[in-house]
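Entry:
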Amino acid sequence: MKGQTSPNGWTSFETAIGVCGIAWNALGVTRFLLPASTHKDLQREMSTLDLGACRNPPPWVRSTIVQAVKHLKGQAQDFSRVPLDFSGVPDFHRVVYSETLRVPSGGCTTYGELAERIGKPGAARAVGTALGKNPFALIVPC
């Protein structure tokens, strides 16, 4: 991104497990959708989310797409440096997503461990709820 502005937009792309979608704005990725059966199905879902127009992605989004394709092909990727736009995300969810990004690719943790790491022991259920509403699935692992 490096000071560039990118209009809101989204695109779909093929992966080893189906058609994924990614949406962005000038601040970062706003949404990542896991595979749908077809581009048409994914486009229908994306169009209900008011994410801007389907367009060619800027270079930083294309780089994220390359990472996603590799990851879904079985080549673990580190998404921790992908810029994310957390506006509209509740504060608690933002904290959960930020901490989850610290889990190494291929690593594993529990909702209870994440709750403790963010200083909310006993909030495992709330962590699970936040991750269940994760708009950045794959980039922020669930």
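Residues 35 and 111 are 24 Å apart (CA to CA).
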